[in-house]
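note to self: dont lose this again. the chain is below, predicted strucutre after it. 150 aa total, dont forget to put it in the shared folder this time
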Amino acid sequence: MARSIIGGCSCGSVRYECSADPLYMANCHCRNCQRASGSGFVSYLGVPRNALKISGEVKYFEATSDSGNLVSRGFCPNCGSRLFAHTAAVPIMIAINAASLNDPGWYRPAMDFYTASAQPWISMDPALPKFHANGYQTVFRVNDCPENQS
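---
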């Protein structure tokens, strides 16, 4: 049964609700996430894009990710809260910043991505699987997505 995933920005201008269970929950240690967050990593939960309903204006900033793909990071234009990320490599999925959940206490990361870029001052959970680069392939085979077929 799908958990209702609800959250939003700090000022309340942007709200979201997702009707599907997360496809994955992970900590991303890539340099792009570090720069965007001002921290050592970002905690995300990936969900099917078509299951996410967003109300309010979201601005997106695009950059090249560590993998070379274009990544778009969504934030509230009023308060600056970081809310979402999506990449051209996996167009059917969007990642929700775990800190933006109404109740982030249920979030449990299942893996660490881009550990090659992890900062030495971060203590990673030794029980979680580690991926030198991205770990999307553990969730589903990206090349099997219809959007990625030539």
